[in-house]
Amino acid sequence: MESINDNIKTLTKEIGLPGIRRNFEILLDEFKEKDKSYDQFLYKLLEIEFASRTKNRKASRIRQAMFPYKKYLDELKLEELPGDAKTKLPELENLDFIKHGRNIILAGNPGTGKTHIAIGLGIKACLNDFKVHFTTVPRLNSDKRKSL
Q: Are residues 27 and 82 in the same domain?
């Protein structure tokens, strides 16, 4: 005979509530020991599910963006960037160019940080709930030829 907890696990799997499925028993134990209300329990459970979904959505956006590797803006060695990149980076980091529908083009010599900046901005955008598609000029040209 299945227990109520087994039934909860089955239902949460069927309706897609992985955060609740993973955490409700732990939370039950925590709330049994304390004098807390059912609405506090439910709120905490929903809060955990929300956090789980948010984390998964951000990870999914990063995967779907098709970055060749992960590079973050805080890993940039600012002292090694060209002067104009150093001055424009703070403006780009706030992601206003996305909010205003503007494009940016990163151009320069090899090894100047263009790809690192592009990936770092893309990951930051994904983490801020924007959809991103990463590509390079050679890949863009190749994809364009395929569609002709």
A: no
Task: Please say whether the beta carbons of 67 and 119 come within 8 A.
Answer: yes
Q: Report the predicted TM-score, pTM, of the whole model to 2 decimal places.
A: 0.78
Looking at the structure, do residues 15 and 60 belong to the same domain, yes or no?
A: yes
Residue 10 shares a structural domain with residue 56: yes
Q: Which helix (H) or strand (E) holds 48?
A: helix 38-64
Residue-range definition of the domain harbouring residue 112: 73-147
Structural domains of the chain, count: 2
Nearest to 121 by CA among 78, 62, 35: 62
Residue 116's H or E segment, with its range, is helix 114-127
Where residue 70 falls (left for φ over 0; alpha for ψ -120 to 50; beta otherwise) is: beta
Q: In a structure prediction context, what are the per-residue pLDDT tens digits for the chain, which is 148 residues long?
A: 678 889 999 999 999 999 999 998 988 888 887 777 888 888 999 999 999 999 999 999 999 999 999 999 999 988 888 888 889 999 999 999 999 999 888 888 888 899 999 999 999 999 999 999 998 888 888 877 777 6
Q: Are residues 90 and 140 in the same domain?
A: yes
